[in-house]
Amino acid sequence: MKEKFLHYVWQYKLLHQPKLYSAQNEKITIINCGVYNTNSGPDFLNAKIQIDNQLWYGNIEIHIKSSDWYTHKHETDSNYDAVILHVVWENDAEVFMKNNKPIPTLELNDKVDGNILKNYQSLVYQNSNWIPCGKQISKVNSFTLENWLERLFFERLEQKSKFILELLSETNNDYEAVLFQMLAKNFGLKVNSEAFLKLSKSFSFSVLRKVRHKEVEISALLFGQGGFLKDDVDIFFYKNLKNEYKYLKHKYLLKPLKKEYFQFFRMRPSNFPTIRIAQLSALYCKHQNLFAEVLKSENIEFLYDLFDIKVHPFWKSHYTFKKESKKSSKKLSKSFIDLVIINTIIPLKYVYFKSKGILKEEELLSLMKSLKPERNSIITNFENLKVKCDNSYASQSLLQLKNRYCDAKRCLECAIGDQLVKAQ
């Protein structure tokens, strides 16, 4: 038995006996269960119950065993002085208030609906399934599932918002600067994300604003700050960038990173840091006010066009500065742009709209539903359980479900688990 289950039973009044009596044989009528407390202190606050003929307002504390009151030293904690009812699974010891009167105690082990207890145990104690409800999730009605997935999607956006708000705080609410930092992080993909973020923070965005009108200057800034212009390479393009960076470094008192921060090993050439920096340079050379353009985007075609860039001709025949290769356009693929939209554009627009008190949830949902779902083992496993995943909105929601609820067995906080536990 877990306390979380007892919290759930109390919160939703899942007691099958119409008449309740305390361990002291007092009649108990639950009028208001109180507000679930996720902080320290009693489990439910501001409850309203009637004990015999007396109406009580106060807090509810819940334990597996009544003796846990003393195990947790509540008798010495003033936060528990206003407890009006002790709810327990097993009443194994009498608990007294400071005036030496016993605290009214409600024992639940014979009062919980047997079907609910059985359903709960089949979820929480099922360790052989990939997720606790693996054998039952396909039975959940579509209305419950669809509403829960939408809530999970916005919960995931809220989670991503925390990082964006940190960046906004660091940049004095400069959305253009934060967009650049988030794009840089995304352009680095998983392997180089932190290195690219470090690169984007290694200089003031005001410098980029001043140089982004000329491709050679913005390229020199990004490659120079990344530590890629310290070698002696006998190529005109490289020498030109190196000379330009020398000037920028002196003018803006720049401090470059170490090239060793960036990983090339076991990466596809199209994902080399040099190519991603070249693409990022081209993007900011093409758009002078990128965040303003992002805000105007209401459909996926607009965003695809926004990220349709052409790298400097040098990079069409190179993956690094030193070695020539077969010519290719080095354009951003649609799958890469999709990742940028999912991880940068949608979360940043969400934070911006929210800060302005603007509700554009349908616009964000429409954008997400127009993107293909991510392909990974989690999504594949959900599809094997007959859970549809037709677009990126669904895949993002399912990732949130698996990582935040299923893995932690938070079934009682999940709409799917809630329906399965209460099923008759």
From TrEMBL:
InterPro entries the record matches:
DUF2851 (IPR021272)
Record's protein name: DUF2851 family protein
Organism annotation: Tenacibaculum platacis
